[in-house]
Amino acid sequence: MRGIHSIIRAVAHIVAGILVIWILMDLLDANQGNTVVSWFHSAADWLAGWSRGLFTVSGHTLQVLLDYGIPAVVYVVVGNLIGRAADRSRAPSR
């Protein structure tokens, strides 16, 4: 059943990818009126809702990196840890 562990990792990386894409769109001043940009903004806001405003800094760039970068890293780390733990639990015992 190794497939489920790969799925967990893939989902974590996709979620982090959405957050990273939003960071880039925001920092590159993407057109907020565009449907695709709006979708990434909404998705990123929902995915990072628990961490936005965790730290308050004066610069917009650093604020965006903290608000959306921290959850991106957390999702990847947690997804990989869960996948790795599940792999170990399925390993044959000697």
Describe, in plain words, how this protein is organized in 3D.
This protein is mostly helical. It has one domain. The protein has helices spanning 2-27, 35-47, 60-90. The longest helix is centred in the last third of the chain and has 31 residues, at 60-90. The two termini are 19 Å apart. The mean pLDDT is 91.
Brief summary of the model shown:
With 94 residues, this protein is an all-alpha fold. The chain has helices spanning 2-27, 35-47, 60-90.
Instruction: Name the structural class.
Output: mainly alpha
Largest sheet, if any?
none
Order of helices and strands: HHH
- Could you tell me the radius of gyration in angstroms? 16 Å
What's the pLDDT, averaged over the residues?
91
Helix content: over 70%
How would the global form be characterised? elongated
The rounded distance between the terminal residues' Cα atoms is: 19 Å
User: Number of DSSP strands?
Assistant: 0
